[in-house]
Hints:
By secondary structure, chain A is α/β, with parallel strands linked by helices. The first copy, chain A, is built from six helices and five strands; from the N terminus they run βαβαβαβαβαα. The first copy, chain A, is globular and about 60 Å long.
Amino acid sequence: MKKHVVAIIMGSDSDLAVMSDAARLLDEFHISYEITVVSAHRTPLRMVSYARNAEMKGMRVIIAGAGGAAHLPGMVASLSTLPVIGVPIKTRTLDGIDSLLSIIQMPLGIPVATVAINNAGNAALLALRILALSDSQLQEKLARYQKRMNAMVRKKAAKLKRVGYQSYLKSA
Amino acid sequence: MKKHVVAIIMGSDSDLAVMSDAARLLDEFHISYEITVVSAHRTPLRMVSYARNAEMKGMRVIIAGAGGAAHLPGMVASLSTLPVIGVPIKTRTLDGIDSLLSIIQMPLGIPVATVAINNAGNAALLALRILALSDSQLQEKLARYQKRMNAMVRKKAAKLKRVGYQSYLKSA
Amino acid sequence: MKKHVVAIIMGSDSDLAVMSDAARLLDEFHISYEITVVSAHRTPLRMVSYARNAEMKGMRVIIAGAGGAAHLPGMVASLSTLPVIGVPIKTRTLDGIDSLLSIIQMPLGIPVATVAINNAGNAALLALRILALSDSQLQEKLARYQKRMNAMVRKKAAKLKRVGYQSYLKSA
Amino acid sequence: MKKHVVAIIMGSDSDLAVMSDAARLLDEFHISYEITVVSAHRTPLRMVSYARNAEMKGMRVIIAGAGGAAHLPGMVASLSTLPVIGVPIKTRTLDGIDSLLSIIQMPLGIPVATVAINNAGNAALLALRILALSDSQLQEKLARYQKRMNAMVRKKAAKLKRVGYQSYLKSA
Amino acid sequence: MKKHVVAIIMGSDSDLAVMSDAARLLDEFHISYEITVVSAHRTPLRMVSYARNAEMKGMRVIIAGAGGAAHLPGMVASLSTLPVIGVPIKTRTLDGIDSLLSIIQMPLGIPVATVAINNAGNAALLALRILALSDSQLQEKLARYQKRMNAMVRKKAAKLKRVGYQSYLKSA
Amino acid sequence: MKKHVVAIIMGSDSDLAVMSDAARLLDEFHISYEITVVSAHRTPLRMVSYARNAEMKGMRVIIAGAGGAAHLPGMVASLSTLPVIGVPIKTRTLDGIDSLLSIIQMPLGIPVATVAINNAGNAALLALRILALSDSQLQEKLARYQKRMNAMVRKKAAKLKRVGYQSYLKSA
Amino acid sequence: MKKHVVAIIMGSDSDLAVMSDAARLLDEFHISYEITVVSAHRTPLRMVSYARNAEMKGMRVIIAGAGGAAHLPGMVASLSTLPVIGVPIKTRTLDGIDSLLSIIQMPLGIPVATVAINNAGNAALLALRILALSDSQLQEKLARYQKRMNAMVRKKAAKLKRVGYQSYLKSA
Amino acid sequence: MKKHVVAIIMGSDSDLAVMSDAARLLDEFHISYEITVVSAHRTPLRMVSYARNAEMKGMRVIIAGAGGAAHLPGMVASLSTLPVIGVPIKTRTLDGIDSLLSIIQMPLGIPVATVAINNAGNAALLALRILALSDSQLQEKLARYQKRMNAMVRKKAAKLKRVGYQSYLKSA
């Protein structure tokens, strides 16, 4: 079995629908990852040992998603020297602005690389950019990914030009 | 030496100016407390052991102040069954709305009793109300404190009536 | 009949769906409570007498939920020396940020222990932590509750590992 | 002595600097008022009796200023049928957005006529508009006041035209 | 025909669902009103003449509802000396916080009595409190209205006590 | 074929439902436009050349819609000297307040004429006002458009008067 | 005397310090403008006639600055078919977020081209971009202005490279 | 000369006071960097070529600071496959909430690793964590840095215990 190099963790299994976007992207790039539930508040000691052992297990990047008073990404970052990417999960009451602020506003010394609310896909792409620094094949794959996005936009622009906006909207 | 029953902890010594308001009030009510710096992010393991040992040491209430991505109160609450009171510290960039949301928006299972931004005095008074449940003398002191506040407002109202608002403003 | 030790009050019966979470948790811990509607604005005198008599009736903690210009928790706290826990109810227009600020931003002298928006369950757990200070059995129950939460997260993590995220999401 | 028809009340004497703007305007219009400190939180019973007696004492409008978890205007409105005007006082931590929301977001049944943050002057002018409904002299004075404001703007516009913006800024 | 004493105006007929709450309450109190659409932006001159003629037509209070960049209440207040009550209409994009701020933050000289977002009912009740200052019958009706609200809360509290919260929730 | 004078561009085809409102209005005024997808982030070089060539192609106004971290309008404005109108697209997580701020808060030197969230129709009307400065026929059409809006409001007001608010609401 | 083609208006002379940035930029580009105070609230009729006559007087763009419940830009836009540029003025209480929302959130039909808070300079540059559509000399001047900004950044970058960041900071 | 592996870029030299914190930290860890001004809005083509050449020049991480409508980090990320770290600069009008949202809310495909407002030091530490993945010496230095922070907190806690909070505050 290939060794996992990315950890995808989340505070609750209700975050899985969002966090699975990260897993799907890593699958697409053939990067091996572990995905699990680690709650800062319900399993604090499990979180401590998970964060402290991550590097030894071969992990190179940790992606941590959490909502509300979202302490998981920051706590994991304080217990490891690996780069930690935080994904603020949208909440029912405050739309995730609580998650965003409690992940990003870390004090000097303990950085968390925060991405947009619910954007676990971008967390995976950020992990890939980091891993690609020492993996030229991955670097090329990322470049191709960006070209594909580019081509897709151009294709949509061409279709919009061809069919007009009314037809485009109907076909959407 | 009297045993400490309240712990006043804070994420950084820059929070001390605010958190000392809690100490002053406990002093006034002759309640013994310990005041110290415990950083969730810079000393995570110290925080874990501090929280886990607090009850055994005789602590009955923990007052925790923190600013920004304020994880200390919630993490301590997850590592103890004592009542934890959170004080959101005002921050230079977002006025403490980040501290407030990252302290109060805890998930079901781990409550933090949050007070107003920078209002460490109220955190102490909340601790006193809790301690007073099993200390009738303290209960009486609290009732007297509330009466003194009441009297002070009435005194100010009387002065305002006597001197008029212009003189009152000048004498302030 | 067992004497009630917790009061669960709310500004309107439309808050009951949220506030009943507190009742359910107290039921689970076999703590006797009274649950009723007390409106600061529609029944101000009833509120005054309710708050002033609570302690004499044997209440030890008051849980008060309110939405919008939420004055109930703060007013009750000003009329009693019991610990008062405020639950900001989510509103249709401002998502409960109005409720949150009008409950938590109390002036020095009158603390309200505020929990997350709509999180009446945590209000109950906070009340239990307070009551447990003089009830070692309750303390043990709380510790077991925290262990059960911990076990449930680990169980979910184990399932996620076993079935993979795709199956987990489908079975959710 | 002329009977007071307007009550200007505030939660704390620290609000007096703002609330005195209302007094000054009423002085200017020769409307008799009472100005005093009534704290919803520190003197709840005084507030109840103040609000309940206001009408009998001949008051016709109540202007209430408060900051933070600002409960005074709404509570007074619930204890009287007089029109109550709320002045949200700017706060050090949240700039008065807390005061504003906790004054204005009243439930159906209990209105508070809320004005801009710190704008006690407008509270007085609103009281004057209300009193003028049954006082044609006052109505005329208000019309003249509006004309004076109008003339002052036109005078400033004329000066700006005459001297140019650079000189105008220097002379300001 | 009875002369109208209250004007209920709104910026768009899409505001009517909200503003009709004001009409219903005035109907209940047998107060005669005119209800119409006056757009500050689409019919600015109609707005100017409407506001300038309101007093002459016998109007005593103007209730104005508007959403988004809500200029109607403030502009009408600047063109009349009648008391103007503003109702911020909830918007699809910003939940009415835009409406609220653009109605309430008026400069010194031109007050708008602002009520809660979408709370046209409270605008009507505020108008009634104002009219009642010179109508003792109306004053009594308002007192009875407040008593009915009070009774209704007590009735709900009694039912909740009788049936328990589970049955109450099911019957709601 | 008539030369295009307005460019309607958007960051993603998911913005088309909103941005098509601009197209419809320009159609109504017989102004020729190009509508296409240009992503600042997915097709940065296409954006650079599109913006740099717009003027040479005969474009006179650029309408650019974008959501979230909305960089398209500002980047296009920095690469052209044409007037650029920005349309903040409502987002799922933050309601478009992110789009609004990242479009409007441009530094000195590079203006973006920003309109309300999702209001692509107003972007088109602003473009028409600009084009009308050198097209008196268009100026007249705009004046007629404003009169039609005015008439429509008056018609609705007449209907509301005729049928009453209850019937009006039912027929809506 | 050269005919004025831009109107710079503001709600209060206290806005002049900000709005004079627009005047300075127009001076620099030799564009003739009128600068005056027109208050929507204190001089509503003057505002109506000013807006209705602007086009006839030869104005081609109106720049309107206002703070708080900022109604001037939107009202002027509703009374004219000229392009209107709104400048939200920073306020003491809410930092200008009130000004921004009450200027930009205009309903369909009446656009206001809004720029960043306090950025009157960008309002002038937007006016220049609009005027340049029918003035090729101005177009060239704008292009040169953009080049100068570009050169200035490159010069700063060169200096930073040459002296290092420590010296650069000291010399600033 | 050692090859630069980190690029520190900023939209304006007024951001240098904040961004120099990143430089100082990289100096402390003996990591070679280039620090320069690259404005997305004033030098868009320079930005394009800078971003496209960064990797070829040997850069491994790009730290980009910007304020207001902060487009630099996102645009650079769209023109490179290197990890880009965004630093939202605090602004005078909106405290940096505009900078934060316009940096972090990137669409799927183009991640920006965002850190707290003004926290350029954490941007540097995040870059170091990334570089340390292929540099075990750096990894050790980071671990020592975290230990030093830990020790410093413990030292402060010890001093606070020794001298008491009053003396501590005086000596601060």
